[in-house]
Design a protein that fits this description.
Number of strands: 2
Number of domains: 1
CATH architecture: Up-down Bundle
Order of helices and strands: HHHHHEHHEHH
Strand order of the largest sheet: 1-2
Number of helices: 9
Helix content: over 70%
Structural class: mainly alpha
Shape: globular
CATH superfamily: CDP-alcohol phosphotransferase transmembrane (TM) domain
CATH class: Mainly Alpha
Oligomer: single chain
Radius of gyration: 22 Å
Distance between the termini: 83 Å
CATH topology: Four Helix Bundle (Hemerythrin (Met), subunit A)
Length: 262
């Protein structure tokens, strides 16, 4: 009887949880659809597909934690799906949309984005439980992908449709910067410690309603501003910390001679 139970338990452990992996599959599907849309030069649809992939990617982990169905298989599957949806898909979108006019530098910038995204995911996987979950070490790959996606949506909104020929070098620089931010040690807030079920000041609700109304009125612009703002938040916070550290060091050095004279 004990052996039969052990065999049955082994079979159960070898299985996979369907619900969270279905959302991961949906995220992967939207990433693959984005690639197809980019090849067909349907850039707006390709960008929207990346945004939808982000939503599904956020739901799979949350559902896994809520239903207590987290697993190593799910984590590995999620990383592979993220590399396609947030690495290959946005790089191909940026290349066909704006970077294909400069030959080798364009596709090299796209490959750099994919490579740094893969390195970012690998580093994230081995750092789970070792660093504070309150912060991300480097720009998360979904955020980098959504900066590219919302940029395409923003340009479409202001009337620049189809391939982007004139300021293509600006997009190439943007892609390179995003790639380097992903593998940097700059800290980004993860929002994982936010508890929406706890009591908060009344003003927070008013601010949330205001943001929702602005986002609803101009979603194309607000999505672009929010994603670019998040990408810039890390370097800005890093610069602020560096200035604070330099000032403290200067104050310490200026106080030392006074103590010696006394």
């Amino acid at each position: 009887m004990n052996k039969q139970r052990q065999i049955r338990n082994m079979r159960i452990k070898k299985g996979i949880y369907i619900l969270p992996n279905l959302f991961t599959t949906a995220s992967l599907f939207m990433g693959f659809y984005s690639i197809i849309a980019s090849v067909q030069e349907k850039f707006f649809l390709a960008a929207v597909a990346i945004i939808l992939s982000l939503i599904f990617d956020g739901l799979d982990g949350r559902i896994a934690r809520m239903t207590n169905t987290t697993s190593k298989f799910g984590a590995e599957y999620d990383s592979l799906a993220d590399l396609i949806a947030f690495g290959v898909a946005p790089a191909l979108l940026a290349y066909i949309w704006a970077m294909s006019f400069d030959g080798k530098p364009g596709w090299m910038a796209g490959f750099l984005f994919v490579a740094c995204g893969a390195l970012r995911l690998a580093r994230f996987n081995i750092q789970i439980g070792l660093i504070d979950s309150k912060y991300f070490n480097g720009l998360p790959i979904p955020a980098a992908a959504c900066v590219i996606a919302t940029t395409v949506i923003f340009f479409d909104h202001i009337g620049i449709e189809g391939t982007l020929r004139d300021p293509f070098y600006m997009i190439m620089i943007l892609v390179v910067i995003l790639a380097l931010l992903m593998v940097s040690n700059i800290k980004y807030y993860s929002f994982k410690n936010m508890n929406l079920r706890s009591r908060m000041p009344f003003k927070i609700l008013l601010v949330a309603i205001g943001i929702f109304l602005i986002f609803y009125y101009k979603p194309e612009i607000m999505a672009f501003v929010m994603m670019v703002g998040y990408a810039l938040s890390g370097p800005i916070w890093w610069a602020f910390k560096l200035i604070q550290k330099t000032r403290r060091k200067d104050l310490t050095n200026s106080e030392e001679p006074r103590q010696d004279n006394q």
